[in-house]
Write a structure and sequence with these properties.
- The structure is a single chain.
- With 217 residues, this protein is mostly helical.
- The protein has one domain.
- It is 57% helix and 6% strand.
- It is built from six helices and four strands.
- The strands form two sheets. A two-stranded antiparallel sheet has the order 1-2. Strands 3-4 form a two-stranded parallel sheet.
- β1 and β2 form a beta hairpin.
- α4 packs antiparallel against α5 and α5 packs across α6.
- The radius of gyration is 26 Å and the shape is rod-shaped.
Length: 217
């Protein structure tokens, strides 16, 4: 679903968040040479899902996924057509012709399998490209909100092993970030969609017998 994309984007903030979590302390009452240490946190996944850009990202990602699926289907259908023709006419073919047909089918089979292997990788790369402008906008807004509200550090509360394990509600700046971008907090997130680029799997049998940001301080 689309939240997978949001979660993946959230990971962009993880390394920086870990570094922030290793600061001398996370107690709001602690003071530094420049004044009180104020800690804020936000859910990158939540904020991204609320941003209007998320719907366009979802639409574009789904369209790209469909394009990959159609390409794979087309390759597979061509393979099936030639494999069926080979099976019907193999008995009457001269050995050199038969060998050429078998080699052609084997090459097509390998091409389809390679396409399947790279489809998911291409989809992830497309997702990262589409998300980058939204992540850049989010980072810039977090910086502005932190400066305006006196937060020394802002942590990311997302992840399978969240950097933030506990925090008071008043430390959550997610809604402040959304309002700064002109987004009303609590709006319905983008519909959940699971873009996939996997369609028919080509059998691996023998062709002749039968024919996959950083968070600033």
């Amino acid at each position: 679903m689309f939240r997978v994309a949001m979660a993946a984007a959230a990971l962009t903030f993880t390394s920086a968040s870990v570094a922030l979590a290793q600061a001398p302390t996370t107690t709001a009452a602690t003071t530094t040479a420049s004044g009180p240490l104020k800690i804020g946190y936000t859910s990158v996944e939540y904020v991204l899902s609320q941003m209007p850009e998320s719907r366009q990202i979802e639409t574009d990602l789904k369209a790209y996924s469909t394009q990959l699926e159609n390409q794979l289907k087309s390759k597979y259908q061509e393979y099936q057509t030639k494999a069926e023709a080979y099976q019907k006419g193999a008995a009457a073919m001269a050995e050199p012709v038969k060998a050429d047909k078998e080699k052609e089918l084997t090459n097509m089979q390998q091409s389809i399998q390679e396409f399947q292997r790279t489809a998911d990788q291409n989809l992830q790369q497309k997702q990262q490209t589409l998300l980058k402008p939204a992540l850049d906008k989010l980072q810039k807004t977090i910086d502005a909100v932190a400066t305006e509200n006196g937060y020394t550090y802002v942590l990311n509360s997302d992840g399978a092993s969240p950097v933030l394990l506990h925090g008071p509600k008043e430390g959550d700046i997610s809604d402040l970030v959304l309002r700064k971008m002109g987004v009303t907090p609590g709006a319905a997130p983008a519909p959940a969609v699971a873009p996939k680029a996997t369609t028919p799997v080509v059998p691996a049998s023998n062709t002749a017998s039968k024919t996959k940001t950083k968070t600033k301080k």
